[in-house]
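Recall that a protein's primary structure is simply its ordered list of amino acids. Everything else, from secondary elements to tertiary packing, is in principle encoded there. The following example makes that idea concrete.
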Amino acid sequence: MHIFEGIRFNFPTYKHDHPPVLDVNEVADDRMTFGQKVADQVASTVGSWPFIITQSIILAIWLILNITGLVFRWDPYPFILLNVALSFQAAYAAPFVMMSQNRQSVKDRLMAESDYHCNVKGEVEVRNIMDHLDHQDTIILQIIQRLEAQHLEVLHRIGQLDPELAKKLGADIQQVSEEIDEDSGSSVSGNS
């Protein structure tokens, strides 16, 4: 009897038939209209440090010039023209920022959907890897069982030919098994 006789070596196969992973940012950017691009640019400009610093400097100069009166006071205290200008800026910039936020939320939904599909693909692949490993474990156990059976058969035949040699081989194998058990026992206790 051959050691591999009757063992099924046909490993489970898996075809990777899922679509490729998409770059959601690239897809979302390709779908952007001109208005969405303008909204993103305005929102990124209004929400940047250079804009905040520039606006702060302009406001400081406006206030200093109108308080000190170094030049003509075009907007004396309580700075009504300044309030109107800032209100206009806020009213004008707010829709752009909201449009950009809405587009970002659509992009976030696409990203979540893409993550979900990637997770499903990963789960399927892990399941297939586990099936493959289970099949390998089954084959290894079958081989070990056959090796043990052949070992016992060889010992039995040697015992028929030379009983002393069989006892010696049996004792040597028993000693090796005990040493292996001791080594594995000490390594297990050493790791815990």
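The two ends are 43 Å apart (CA to CA). Helices lie at 24-30, 34-46, 49-68, 80-161, 163-191.
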